[in-house]
Write a structure and sequence with these properties.
alpha/beta; Rossmann fold; five-stranded parallel sheet; 11 helices; 37% helix; globular
Length: 253
């Protein structure tokens, strides 16, 4: 339940425009609602700033649809790792639903106007890393951040990155997505005074070990201020970047 909706219920109760019984009915599924196979967390937006997100892998289409129908009544919806097939079913009852094919994310946002804050730059080392980068970008944008992207500027042609130094400098937070050797996170970490959220991807040949090699490289970065997410976890990177981006600007004394 969004903060404003809860405030409105309390205000109307205070003004006696509704009875305590009516207020209780509004809050009947607050903060949780059981579907048997899932416990919907309607309180998460109050605790963490954004509603519960649906991770679709491992769930049946029927389960995803049931959870979506409950969430969409009260919250903006973000579903990650979703198939185009389940999006087709969701679109039938949620007309405003959008499918971001590259990131495999479904967004249903009934809010009329979202004021986006700050500036996040999502950077990918290669084109093969873009799906994970897009998951980070879509996540941060839905949560309320202003997001820009810069793709295919990895260390195999590092001059491509240097053409965008001004863009790097304008961001409050950078998300750097890279597979293979994962070196781009260290390079960017050494070029900026802004926080860097590094995401290793499973892109690479045998010795990349499905993303373990770039993960270890990023964890061992000699550049200060680099935080590392799990392999292919663009969603987690988007959330962390948004939270950092939402912090107040520095105030000089």
């Amino acid at each position: 339940m969004p903060n404003r909706k809860l405030e409105k219920i309390l205000e109307t109760l205070y003004k006696r425009d509704i009875t305590p019984g009516e207020a209780l009915e509004h809050l009947r599924h607050f903060p949780t609602e059981s579907l048997g196979f899932a416990q919907i967390d309607h309180h998460r937006g109050l605790r963490q700033g954004f509603a519960e997100v649906i991770y679709c892998e491992g769930k049946s289409d029927a389960e995803i649809i049931a959870i979506t129908k409950k969430l969409v009544k009260h919250h903006p919806v973000l579903a990650t790792r979703a198939s185009k097939a389940v999006f087709g079913k969701i679109k039938k009852f949620a007309k405003g639903a959008i499918y971001h094919e590259r990131s495999r994310a479904i967004v249903i946002d009934p809010r009329k106007k979202v004021i986006r804050t700050g500036s996040i730059l999502v950077v990918s080392a290669g084109t093969s890393d873009i799906p994970v980068a897009e998951e980070a970008a879509v996540t941060a944008q839905v949560m309320g951040s202003q997001v820009a992207t810069l793709y295919d500027v990895g260390v195999a042609g590092i001059h491509r990155l240097f053409d965008h130094m001004e863009t790097l400098g304008q961001a409050r937070v950078l998300v750097v997505v890279a597979g293979m050797d994962g070196a781009l996170a260290s390079v960017i970490g050494g070029l900026t005074d802004k926080p860097v959220v590094a995401v290793p991807t499973s892109v690479g040949y045998g010795a990349a070990f499905g993303g373990v090699a770039p993960l270890l490289a990023m964890l061992n970065s000699c550049a200060a201020g680099v935080a590392v997410m799990n392999i292919d976890n663009g969603f987690g990177a988007g959330v962390l970047a948004h939270k950092i981006n939402s912090l107040p600007e520095k105030v000089s004394e």
